[in-house]
Write a structure and sequence with these properties.
The complex is a heterodimer. Chain A is of the alpha+beta class. Chain A folds into 2 domains: 6-212, PmbA/TldD fold (2-Layer Sandwich), CATH 3.30.2290; 217-445, no CATH class. In chain A, 23% of the residues lie in helices and 38% in strands. Chain A contains 10 helices and 17 strands. In chain A, the strands form 2 sheets. Chain A has a 6-stranded antiparallel β-sheet. In chain A, strands 7-12-13-15-17 form a 5-stranded mixed beta barrel. In chain A, helix 1 (6-18) crosses helix 2 (75-91) and helix 4 (122-138) packs parallel to helix 5 (200-213). In chain B, a hairpin with a 3-residue loop joins strand 6 and strand 7 (205-224). Chain B folds into 2 domains: 3-284, PmbA/TldD fold (2-Layer Sandwich); 287-540, no CATH class. By secondary structure, chain B is of the alpha+beta class. Chain B is globular and about 70 Å long. Chain B has helices at 3-9, 41-57, 113-131, 164-180, 268-284, 299-311, 316-320, 334-338, 433-437, 489-494; strands at 28-29, 62-78, 81-99, 102-108, 147-152, 185-201, 205-224, 229-234, 254-256, 260-262, 286-287, 291-297, 351-354, 375-380, 383-384, 406-407, 416-417, 422-424, 442-447, 452-454, 460-463, 467-472, 475-481, 483-488, 496-499, 506-515, 520-528, 531-540. Classes of the chains: A alpha+beta, B alpha+beta.
Chain lengths: 445, 546
């Protein structure tokens, strides 16, 4: 039941719209089958599957709207949920920012669904975990990991004739490898729509190597360092920058995109001119749905072009106030990379720090987009073009805007998976950046 | 997920309109009236017995069943308009079993006999599958059956019974007060939770519980278009395990310091007015000179430092490595506990875990594996003496009973070890906030929680706040801004030099503390009186991005 085809979803939604007696109605029908396996201390700790389909109906009278949800799909239940949403709408206060639903949009399909991932079984998950745990045990290392897979669909229809449908699969894998003496730790992340690209043994080997190499780290003084950020580290900070690019906040004067004297920095150069960040739902390495919030069609779109801000995100209400087209929040983030390999970047570094990932990143000052957080699971000192030795973790206080102004070299792009979740789904290059601000040392391994 | 993350997720922190789709909906939207309905206890017992019998017949040696009805209500406004009113309900059953020595879990929202029996069978099948990978069988600390018992949060006014209009009027008045006091923008909200939980186990316990939580909050922004600068001031309220009476303030619930502080009850209107003014004051405040300061930390701030640097590292599952791939491990390793002399903090530092504290977020009669809740020392006279333990961990510490720290955030989530309320005990000598401040030569008085970050073993942390006041030679000399402090947990708690007395003891807390993969949310309170920490490293957080 969880994955409805386009025709099946359309059939149910047509019935729902047909039951409406309100000024208008919008219905969302979504479903997913998700599975996961979690392991720690070299043993599986939990595993499970979860299946869910739900229908959300929003009816409106003028500027009053009400929402009701149901997970039963016989005719009587469908009519009941429509009536319920109408009752709630009648009771609701007017929302001056209410926007009537969109009329039919044109969407371009995106290949986000792969049968390989949809067919993942509990046995596959157990084997994926075993392929990660066994090599760890052989190297006197303790593995803790998590694999989660999802196949699902999203669909919506409204009384203005709009219908949208997309189905997608995803698989996310992370593993932390810790040496049994407690002095080394490595981590790796993988994220794909197509599970045939995932090899947990290959990924786990990287984390094991990092754990072994990071043993007995030395402390170096905090301060400003040239850093080489692996894509997972850079991607988190770039992802957080996206969350701050809401047009309304900028217009209201309470964003890092707000300008002295009023107005926004839209159209201004805010970072190094080699920085190009865009969204493209049809990128085959990080595909996203061709439609987003409220059924708005997504398109390939520059966010930052040659260092200049070219788009902020407008919801439909704010766009109507500003007389511009709405710009939906992107389904993916892509930062253009360069040709340099990680080895090249290390070779060209006289003195610097290689960062595997950041952890516990939290906002400090929204005016400058200042964030704090720590390095984790593999931090290394580079001297005269070579990795010299592992170093203790640092706390940083840095803004992605300052980071992207201090750009030295762009490396190759990698699809970023989940860490704390700020960076995914993205294609982000290795970045070499000067004067990255580390403010204190951490004893954590 | 901390409550600030919830705010960010809900698009209410500094962003614009909050849409229904941005809420972390924890169930189905329902009407406000439906939230007042309850499920008959006799029916719940019948359904639980179906699950217990089915699991036993399939080979389970232990079974527990949780029938949960989880209700939420959000009322969200900004400036002069209502942004959203949402009621949600989630109802279903989770069945956990031990078979062949391993755990299995399955859940269903279809509570007919066939579906329950099938779910129990699935749980047993998963347990048997998982047991093949076990290195040693689950060892469960004994818990005798309690028969049919119940527990209700001692609330005075069920917040779900208060008409929506009254709530909307309160929030719009709060917004108006803040705007009149100088705020340019304000988002205010009420977030209400009612967990109706029924627990039954093959030990012979049938436990019916009714838990209530409330969180009134606001977020003010003051802008200066000419300079392009802005400042924010968030609410000084605490999320509480209380009913709507939390908002019926009384004069005795207020502590008059440099701003009004709230103890057990909250005057939202007064705080919004103060917030509007203080956001403006922050614009003009002096940027802090970085260096070492003695910090006077208000309970509205210190709760979060306790949560991150004491609460999380004393979770036994973290110590053992079960959370290594996500939240991390802990520096409080078992050898430190075994030594019986690890000086976690100065002799003044006594931190007590307490699942029974009235009005706290974590207060329940029994945890989610049927263990009666209690109170115990985590840090005694500065020394690490205990952890947070559930039934299958008790044997690791040589305990013959669980400490009752098991919790699941939904019927569909498997229960695991979660943090109890953990509070810094007040000082024994009679001392007010002023008594603490008057002895400080060079210091900063911090009120309210702000930015927070800590490493994966809980050594190095950084915290911000809402209001910062400079102390010079025992006197508050004015407001500061751009303040954050960084410390090492061990050094920080060993620098604890003074704590105000019991009359200043107040609770703060987290409405949605995140842990686990898939992540689950937990509500927990942390209390303290105002406390002093010497020689803490303060940094300046201002930057220029052009």
């Amino acid at each position: 039941m969880a994955i409805l085809s386009k025709d099946e979803a359309q059939q149910i939604l047509k019935k729902v719209i047909g039951f409406s007696k309100a000024d208008g109605i919008e219905a969302n029908l979504n479903g997913s089958d998700a599975g996961n396996i979690r392991y720690a201390r070299n043993s599986v700790s939990t595993s499970g599957e979860d299946s869910n389909v739900s229908l959300g109906v929003q009816s409106y009278f003028g500027k009053k709207s009400g929402t009701a949800t149901i997970n039963e799909f016989d005719d009587a239940s469908l009519e009941k949920v429509v009536r319920r949403s109408e009752e709630l709408a009648q009771l609701a206060p007017e929302n001056p920012e209410f926007m009537e639903p969109l009329t039919q949009q044109t969407y371009q399909e995106s290949k986000t669904y792969f049968d390989s991932t949809a067919k993942i079984t509990p046995e596959y998950r157990a084997q994926a975990a075993a392929n990660s745990i066994n090599p760890a045990v052989a190297k006197d290392i303790t593995a803790a990991g998590y694999l989660t897979d999802n196949r699902g669909f999203n669909s919506m229809m409204n009384s203005k004739g709009l219908f949208a449908y997309n189905k997608a699969t995803s698989v996310d894998f992370t593993v932390t490898m810790r040496t049994n003496d407690g002095t080394g730790s490595g981590w790796v992340t993988r994220s794909f729509n197509d599970v045939s690209k995932l090899d947990t043994a290959e990924a786990s080997k990287i984390a094991i190597d990092k754990a072994l190499q990071s043993r007995n780290a030395k402390a170096i003084e905090p301060g400003k360092y040239t850093v080489i950020l692996e894509p997972a580290a850079a991607g988190d900070l770039i992802g957080l920058m996206f969350f701050g690019m809401n047009a309304r906040q900028a217009d209201e004067g309470r964003s890092f995109m707000s300008k002295k004297g009023g107005g926004t920095k839209l159209g201004e150069k805010i970072v190094d001119e080699r920085v190009n960040i865009y969204t493209d739902p049809w990128n085959e390495n990080v595909p996203a749905s061709g439609w987003g919030n409220n059924g708005l069609a997504r398109k390939k779109m520059d966010i930052i072009k040659n260092g200049v801000v070219t788009n902020l995100f407008y919801d439909r209400y704010w766009a109507s106030q500003k007389n511009v087209e709405p710009v939906p929040f992107p389904g993916n983030r892509i930062m253009q990379g360069g040709n340099a390999s990680l080895e090249d970047m290390i070779k060209d570094t006289k003195r610097g720090v290689l960062v595997t990932r950041f952890w516990y990143i939290r906002p400090v000052d929204p005016q400058t987009l200042l964030y704090t957080g720590l390095t984790r699971d593999g931090t290394f000192y580079i001297e005269n073009g070579k990795i010299k030795h592992p170093i203790k973790n640092f706390r940083f206080n840095e803004s992605p805007i300052i980071m992207l102004n201090n750009l030295e070299t762009l490396g190759k792009q990698v699809r970023v998976g989940n860490g704390e979740g700020f960076g995914a789904p993205s294609l982000i290059p290795y970045l070499k950046v000067r004067d990255f601000t580390f403010t204190s040392l951490s004893d954590a391994v | 997920m901390k409550r600030r993350d919830f705010i960010n997720m809900a698009g209410m922190g500094a962003t614009g309109a909050a849409l229904l789709s941005q809420f972390p909906l924890m169930g189905k939207p329902i009407s406000a009236e439906r939230a007042l309905e309850t499920v008959d206890v006799a029916l719940k017992k019948q359904l639980a017995d179906v699950a217990l019998n089915a699991a036993r017949s399939k080979g389970a040696t232990y079974t527990d069943v949780r029938i949960g009805r989880y209700l939420n209500q959000f009322v969200v406004t900004r400036e002069d308009k209502v942004e959203n009113i949402v009621n949600t309900e989630s109802y279903g059953m989770g069945i956990r079993v031990i078979a062949n020595g391993g755990w299995g879990f399955a859940a269903t929202d279809k509570l007919d006999k066939d579906s329950i029996a099938k779910t129990a069978e699935t749980a047993v099948a998963i347990a048997k599958e998982n047991s093949r990978l076990l290195t040693e069988p689950v060892k469960l600390a004994p818990q005798k059956g309690l028969g049919e018992v119940s527990w209700k949060a001692p609330i005075e006014k069920n917040a779900f019974e208060v008409p929506i209009k009254e709530k909307v009027d309160l929030l719009l008045n709060v917004n108006d007060a803040a705007m009149k006091a100088g705020a340019n923008y304000i988002t205010s909200l009420l977030f209400l939770i009612n967990e109706q939980k029924y627990f039954a186990s093959s030990d012979g316990s049938y436990i019916d519980q009714d838990v209530h939580r409330i969180w009134p909050a606001f977020f003010i922004t003051k802008i200066d278009a000419a300079t392009g600068k802005f400042e924010t001031r968030n609410t000084l309220s605490a999320p509480m395990g209380m009913g709507y009476e939390y908002l019926d303030w009384r004069p005795q619930d207020k502590i008059h310091s440099v701003t009004t502080l709230y103890k057990g009850r909250y005057d939202m209107l007064e705080d919004a007015k103060a917030g509007g003014m203080q956001a403006g004051e922050k614009m003009k405040a002096k940027s802090v000179e970085p260096g070492k300061y003695d910090l006077i930390l208000d309970p509205s701030h210190l709760w979060l430092t306790i949560h991150e640097s004491v609460g999380h590292p004393t979770e036994l599952d973290r110590v053992l490595g079960y959370e290594a791939n996500f939240a991390g491990t802990s520096f409080l390793t078992l050898d430190k506990w075994e030594s019986k002399n690890f000086n976690f903090g100065s002799k003044l530092v006594n931190i007590v875990a307490d699942k029974t504290q009235v009005g706290s977020l974590g207060a329940v009669g029994y945890d989610d594996e049927g263990v009666p809740c209690g109170k115990w020392d985590l840090i005694k006279d500065g020394v690490l003496v205990n952890y947070q333990v559930i039934r299958d961990q008790a044997h690791i510490l040589g305990l013959n009973a669980s400490q009752g720290c098991c919790y699941a955030d939904n019927w569909s989530s498997v229960q695991f070890q979660r943090m109890p309320n953990a509070s810094l005990q007040p000082g024994k000598q009679k001392k007010s906030i002023d008594d603490l401040i008057k002895n400080v030569e060079k210091g900063i008085y911090i009120i309210g929680d702000g930015s927070f970050s800590i490493d994966q073993q809980r050594y190095n942390f950084q915290f911000g706040g809402q209001l910062f006041y400079e102390i010079k030679n025992g006197k508050i000399t004015g407001m500061l801004k751009d303040v954050a402090y960084q410390a090492n947990t061990h050094e920080f708690w060993n620098s604890c030099a003074d704590i105000a007395d019991e009359s200043d003891f107040r609770l703060g807390g987290a409405f949605g503390d995140g842990k686990g993969q898939p992540a689950q949310s937990n509500s927990v309170s942390h209390g303290s009186a105002t406390a002093r920490f010497n020689g803490v490293n303060v940094i300046n957080t201002s930057r220029n991005i052009g």
